[in-house]
Design a protein that fits this description.
The longest helix is centred in the middle third of the chain and has 38 residues. Helix 8 runs antiparallel to helix 10, helix 12 runs antiparallel to helix 16 and helix 12 runs parallel beside helix 17. Strands 2-1-3-4 form a 4-stranded mixed β-sheet, sandwiched between helices. It is mainly α.
């Protein structure tokens, strides 16, 4: 408790110095603008789409007796309703599908951009149908793929008609069968996650992981740079007369952590406000069209609490080591070299967590479960596992306990290195030097 006044004094000085800099103000402003812009992406895209002319697909056919109407088939596929659209609503359509009598004129219109594409249907020598799509759209684009599906449907219906299959029977031939997905555990009665839920879990795991990674890398470097700045200007020697090295170390980590918390609150607050006003702004800009506001599935109070806990503990663990590393050098140009080990470890944790969240690594594998308990990796991996719903409460509790113990050990080691490192000038620290400082603190 005797250390607390000096720790708070150092933290207050560090906090006020950082928040008053132009770098902090400008950086926060840019991040806030970026978050708001991202939140309004649906409105911007809808506005740009509404400003453009309605894309049109034209159909030309040399055959007038096709069983399946190609216009209706194309229209059904291209304008299939999404979750936010009302089926059958003529005002909520992505494409207009029409017929043309002159193929040459239609191709010229498509070349000039007046038509999105022209689908030509002809009878092939083998009596089947041949389809040619004239368009400037990319061959792997959504329009080309949907037209290909519609062409397959039209061709199959034509073959069945030539085989004298009754049109009423044709409709039942390709009706989808009853198909369900269930858990292998008979005790589980909840429905498996669908594509929407899986996508939301990915976004949550990826988003929270990258936020913690940015916090550690960005503000960890701030801690190291702050130590080097004071050391290179010889201010450190004066400060050591008023506070012990451990107090300086803890105060710097606490002060920079408070700056990080303030900046993140500003960013998250701006994003939340932007989401809340997204609907009214969309209605005003689009004149009645409202962009849907949907928070990711699985975003709960407990997950947000985990994000805060792992963010604070993960930053603290790395920041004390960044401070110790910064004390070993006297020039800002050397900071990137001494902090490289922490940067590599945090990057490894981030990449593993992202691969697990996206399914490139099996998030339920034993290796991921073990790695998620390692303190240097748990801030990243546990959030990905929690967002995916693949973690037990005792695993979260155990990882937090291990993180706290690791912070205590890191504080002891960093404190000893810091105590001697801040007075170390003109030397390039090697492994032997760091080991000697850790053992003796001198």
């Amino acid at each position: 408790m005797r250390d607390l006044p000096n720790i708070l004094a150092v933290a207050r000085r560090e906090f006020l110095f950082r928040v008053r800099t132009r770098t902090f103000a400008l950086g926060t402003l840019i991040l806030v603008i970026g978050v708001v812009a991202i939140a309004f992406v649906p409105v911007i895209v809808s506005y740009l789409d509404s400003a453009n002319e309605e894309p049109t697909i034209a159909v030309w056919s040399s055959e007038t007796d096709l069983t399946t109407d190609p216009v209706r088939t194309l229209d059904a596929l291209l304008n299939a309703p999404t979750e936010t659209q009302v089926p059958g609503d003529p005002t909520d359509r992505a494409f207009r599908v029409t017929t043309v009598a002159d193929l040459g004129a239609a191709r010229a219109a498509a070349d000039e951009g007046d038509l999105t594409a022209v689908l030509a249907i002809e009878r092939a020598p083998d009596d089947g149908l041949a389809f040619t799509l004239y368009t400037n759209e990319p061959a792997v684009g959504r329009v080309v793929q949907l037209v290909r599906q519609a062409s397959t449907t039209i061709a199959i219906a034509d073959r069945l008609d030539r085989l004298d299959v009754d049109p009423a029977d044709q409709a039942t031939l390709f009706a989808p069968p009853a198909y369900a997905v269930a858990w292998p555990d008979p005790e589980r009665t909840d429905a498996p996650e669908g594509p929407v839920e899986e996508g939301s879990s990915y976004l949550l795991g990826f988003g929270m992981t990258i936020l913690i990674f940015m916090m550690i890398i960005l503000y960890g470097n701030w801690v190291a740079m702050s130590v080097v700045e004071e050391k290179s200007s010889r201010v450190m020697e004066v400060i050591l007369n008023a506070a012990r090295p451990f107090q300086l170390l803890a105060g710097k980590v606490m002060g920079v952590g408070a700056v990080a918390g303030l900046q993140y609150l500003a960013i998250l607050g701006a994003g939340a406000v932007a989401l809340l006003i997204q609907g009214p702004v969309s209605e005003l800009v689009l004149r009645g069209g409202e962009a849907s506001i949907a928070l990711p599935e699985g975003l709960t109070i407990w997950l947000l609490l985990e994000f805060v806990v792992y963010g604070v503990l993960g930053f603290t663990l790395y920041a004390v080591l960044y401070a110790a590393a910064g004390s070993l050098v006297s020039r800002q140009e050397d900071v990137s070299q001494v902090v490289m080990p922490m940067a590599l470890i945090s990057t490894a944790g981030y990449m593993i967590a992202v691969y697990a969240a996206t399914g490139l690594l099996d998030i339920q594998s034993g290796a991921i479960i073990v790695l998620s308990q390692i303190p240097f990796l748990s801030p990243f991996l546990m959030l990905s596992r929690s967002a995916a719903g693949e973690v037990a409460p005792w695993e979260i509790a155990l990882s937090i306990v291990l993180l706290i113990l690791a912070i205590a050990v890191a504080l002891w080691i960093a404190g000893r290195i810091y105590a001697a490192g801040v007075l170390l000038y003109g030397q390039r620290p090697g492994i032997r030097t760091i080991w000697r400082l850790t053992r003796s603190g001198m």
